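ingest -> fold -> write
write: protein_1
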Amino acid sequence: NEFALDLGFAQQLSKSFGLGVSMRYINSSISRAYFNGSSGNAANSVAVDLGGTYRPKTFSVNGKTMHLTSGFLFSNVGAKIKYSNDENFLPMNLRLGVGLKTEFDAYNALSVYFDVNKLLVPTPPVYKYKLDASGKPTTEIELDPSTGKRLIASGKDPNVDVVTGLFQSFNDAPTGFREELQELNLSFGTEYNYNNLLFVRGGYFYEPIQKGGRQFITLGFGTRLKVLHFDGSYLIPTSLNNPLQNTWRISLSFYFDEAGKESPEP
């Protein structure tokens, strides 16, 4: 069983800036699929999300009203989670994004979005391997004779605390700055909005092939009926035999603050 419980709070600090924070309790029993031949225990951890949005005043270009939005989100910042005898970092992540909405008239609007994601956990280093009699590397990792730890050829030791790992994740790639750039995931998206009743969406997610190679297109739609909002999307991978192919995502939301309000007329 896998589950998480969230408790969040958001506050508008000014006309332009808002801040939100949430705490999450995580319970994971994935290790009960047996690790090293023995049954593992359920793992528990606590994490925090912190995000903010900035929306300056609207402005006009060629008679069209423009809305600029930017934001950030630190997610899954918390203690390591322990399966069996091993501790693992939570998937801490930093997301930075910007969006621009253009209102063509009272009914039609088009928005474009771009964001960057960075995983805030240490990058695995390249370890040093023992050499055979001819000087060629073997498959056996060389150990430090004084500590018994594996010797690192390039990169940094990933066995650090959470705070150190968070900051270390920005400069620990074994091959240097170019590899650090490959750890950035890029997302592009657009949304057509008709009178806040009908939404049509499209997007593209790009992860460098050196870091996993997840790359896919998303097509989505949404509709609003008073307090109920329905959204759906479909994933289209750009490579064959991708485990994400034929993936649907559907959500139904209830907005309490809109109860009693009249829905916009089409």
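write: protein_2
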Amino acid sequence: MITIQQVKAARALLDWKQSDLADACGLSLTAINNLERGIGSPRVETINAIRQTLENVGIEFTDGEGVRKRGEVIELHVFEGSRFITLMNDYAFPYLKASGQSLMCGIDERRFVEYGKEEVKRYDDFIRQNKVVERIIIRENDTYILSDPKAYRWVPEGLIGKVPYMIYGEVFVLIIWDAKKTICIRNASLTDSFHRQFEFLWSMGRGLPSDVSRALSQPDFYGGS
């Protein structure tokens, strides 16, 4: 049986909204929404209908929770447990270095500090040493930032989803903080789709006020833990 992660990944590959999948499967939007949120236990008939519909439009489901368009490979890695951010960075850093650009959307950087300041420092050192350009979309009026204020734009909260994501070259990353889980998907079509979404939100955003400064510049930042 296909997994929730595979359904989400397949929908993203097709650039479909939940309503598009619901219409194509002959299911209600509520049914699709509940399925992707893990609410309740979906019937086997529902899962089979979704799988058949997605396969009919060119999606293939592979071993290890993989998903791809016919003729196009998608690589999926899920990192869980106490080291989920560290493991994500270990995997994603080579792609981040190769692309020279880090795009983040919906990030609450307090969560990275809660995870561990050592990993914050490792990421910051990596970004600077490899001259990676950052662009970060955060919720309007959020003033807790870890990078150069010029790298940020505020966007109204209603335009940002609850699950933050990053784009590191050809790798798309989702962070599910409460579950201590990161999902890394390497696929050009998927990252291109979310890159377009990111650029649209970036164009709507506004820069941070001049009095906002990065937390890392505070003398006691690393001394606190």
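write: annotation protein_2
The chain has a mean pLDDT of 91.
The CA atoms of residues 169 and 203 lie 20 Å apart.
pipeline exit 0
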